[in-house]
């Protein structure tokens, strides 16, 4: 880059105007979880960072809310106002911020001062992973079936699923609003007349998992969503809320095709 003239280097700057919202690129990357400032400087030096489709240079400044920054080809969300949480929804909670019927809703669980909303819905009786964010673009992509973001469930069902029934779940079952199918379905436990099945789905129609299982004669007793994309429930207890790590946020961006 030494051969560039001063005017050419200026033309490569990511933002046209310097303002109070701008900060040094390595500082913005470090704040977003890409490592220490020194590590982020190395990312930039090794030409692994682009800003608005141009290879970034040390000394570049960015507006985190406006400039498009990619690291190794993946979008880096540097906006300090963006928030991302995982919530282990207990049974009996409806996934709305305020329920007109007076049922238990999300208000008592949301982090104080955060204006976030649920990505998609889990029906009132279903438990488990719910992503909370104020990032509308990511939320829309996570919910849209075109992006095929995986959701994994653990279902306790009545009956003992045979290989044939599990194969039917993967092949597809005709429901009243069209066919539904699991990307994968496998039995993981049995106890008396009950069984546990792990399913991976990429759609999110209303009560789809319950209706799919009922369609092959396996009514659901309990349903827990274990993960959304790369974000797993892990050891979170019902009602727990935690902020997603930078790696988890980047994983969601990749899963959503951002």
Task: Explain this structure.
This protein is an alpha+beta fold. It folds into 3 domains: 71 residues, Structural Genomics Hypothetical 15.5 Kd Protein In mrcA-pckA Intergenic Region, Chain A (Roll); 88 residues, Alpha-Beta Plaits (2-Layer Sandwich), CATH 3.30.70.580; 79 residues, Alpha-Beta Plaits. The chain is 22% helix and 29% strand. It has 7 helices and 17 strands. The strands form 4 sheets. Strands 7, 8, 9, 10, 13, 14, 15, 16 and 17 form a 9-stranded mixed β-sheet that branches. It has a 4-stranded antiparallel β-sheet with strand order 3-2-5-6. A two-stranded antiparallel ribbon has the order 1-4. The longest helix is centred in the C-terminal third of the chain and has 10 residues. The protein is elongated, with a radius of gyration of 22 Å. It starts with 5 loop residues before the first helix and ends with a helix. The N terminus is likely disordered.
As a whole number of angstroms, the C-alpha radius of gyration is 22 Å
Total helical segments: 7
How is the CATH topology of the largest domain named? Alpha-Beta Plaits
The gross shape turns out to be elongated
| Poorly predicted sequence stretches spanning 5 or more consecutive residues | 1-20
Going by CATH, what is the homologous superfamily of the largest domain?
Pseudouridine synthase I, catalytic domain, N-terminal subdomain
């Amino acid at each position: 880059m030494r051969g560039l003239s001063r005017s050419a280097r200026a033309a490569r700057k990511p933002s046209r105007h310097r303002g109070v919202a701008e900060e040094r690129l390595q500082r913005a990357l470090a704040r977003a979880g890409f490592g220490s400032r020194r590590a982020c400087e190395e990312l930039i030096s090794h030409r692994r960072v682009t800003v608005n489709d141009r290879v970034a240079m040390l000394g570049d400044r960015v507006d985190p809310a406006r400039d498009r920054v990619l690291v190794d080809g993946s979008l880096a969300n540097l906006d300090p106002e963006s928030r991302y949480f995982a919530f282990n929804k207990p049974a009996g909670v409806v996934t709305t911020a305020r329920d007109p019927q007076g049922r238990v809703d999300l208000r008592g669980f949301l982090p104080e001062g955060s204006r976030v909303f649920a990505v998609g819905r889990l029906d009132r009786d279903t438990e488990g992973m719910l992503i909370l964010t104020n990032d509308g673009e990511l939320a829309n992509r996570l919910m849209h079936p075109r992006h095929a973001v995986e959701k994994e469930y653990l279902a306790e069902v009545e009956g003992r699923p045979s290989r044939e029934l599990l194969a039917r779940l993967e092949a597809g079952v005709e429901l009243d609003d069209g066919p539904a199918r699991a990307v994968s379905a496998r039995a993981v436990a049995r106890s008396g007349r009950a069984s546990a099945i792990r399913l991976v789905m990429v759609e999110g129609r209303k009560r789809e998992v319950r209706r799919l299982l009922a369609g092959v004669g396996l009514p659901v007793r309990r349903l827990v969503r274990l993960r959304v994309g790369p974000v797993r429930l892990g050891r979170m207890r019902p009602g727990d809320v935690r902020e997603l790590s930078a790696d988890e946020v980047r994983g969601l961006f990749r899963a959503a095709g951002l």
